[in-house]
Amino acid sequence: MGEPPLLPRYSLPPALEIPRVTLDQPKGLIPSYRPLVVPPSDLRPPPGVASEGEEKTDKDQKEQPKQPNISLPKEITEITIPFTDVQIPVPKQEILVTAGTTASVSVVATLTATAVFKRCVQILKPLIQQVLKRVQKHRGKEVQSWSRQRLAQRRDRYVQGGSLRGG
Predict the structure, then answer these.
(1) CA 149, 154, 155 angle in degrees (round to 5)?
(2) Cβ atoms within 10 Å, residue 75
(3) What confidence score (pLDDT) does residue 167 get?
(4) Which H, E and C letters describe 21-37, residue by residue?
(5) What integer best gives the mean pLDDT of the chain?
(6) What per-residue confidence (pLDDT) applies to 55?
(7) How far is CA 45 from CA 60, 94, 116, 150, in A?
(8) pLDDT in tens, 142-162
(9) Which residues of 38-57 are buried (b: 16+ CB within 10 A; e: fewer)?
(10) Can you tell me the distance from the alpha carbon of 79 to that of 67, in angstroms, rounded to the nearest whole number?
């Protein structure tokens, strides 16, 4: 056979020495807070000393105007929310029933009209197309099929600089 072929030897340059990066150890911040001092609820000032809270409550009571009693119309009833003292004004039952019935009737009428209109379009579209074709034939004009009209539109678009693929 002979001797093996001699391949050229290439020597690679020495590897770059990259300095090691030393990272400091992370330091955690320990959360701390200043405790709140909350006085007990039965805390009272010593006898003979007026507290600041009493003066404020007296002023608050004097400054608060009394809420006027509002007379509600006959059409409104008040409902008290259970477990609370809140009263909410609500229209009477007759008014709510009338509003709900009106809304239901309008929705049903709209959906029915939509379905009827779609069905009418399905039925009348072929009839109208046949009538238009007969009128065009009677006038002596050439009647093109939908696909021929579409092809002509695409050719016009291609001539104007667009591409055939919808550009």
Answers:
(1) 95
(2) 10
(3) 45
(4) CCCCCCCCCCCCCCCCC
(5) 81
(6) 54
(7) 20, 59, 82, 95
(8) 777 778 888 888 877 666 555
(9) eeeeeeeeeeeeeeeeeeee
(10) 19
Q: What is the pLDDT of residues 28-45, one digit of tens each?
A: 888 888 888 877 777 777
Tell which wins on pLDDT, 132 or 61.
Answer: 132
Residues making up the chain, counted from first to last: 167
How far apart (Å, rounded) are the C-alpha atoms in residues 91 and 73?
10
* Separation CA 97–CA 117 (nearest Å): 30
Task: Retrieve residue 5's tokens.
Answer: 């072929």
pTM: 0.37
Contact between residue 127 and residue 114 where contact means Cβ atoms under 8 Å apart: no
3-state class (DSSP) for residue 94: helix
What is each CA distance from 4 to 1, 9, 11, in whole angstroms?
9, 14, 21
The pLDDT value recorded for residue 64 is 56
Residues 6+ apart with CB under 8 A from 52: none
Residue 86 in contact with residue 80, Cβ under 8 Å? Answer: yes
What's residue 145's pLDDT? Answer: 79
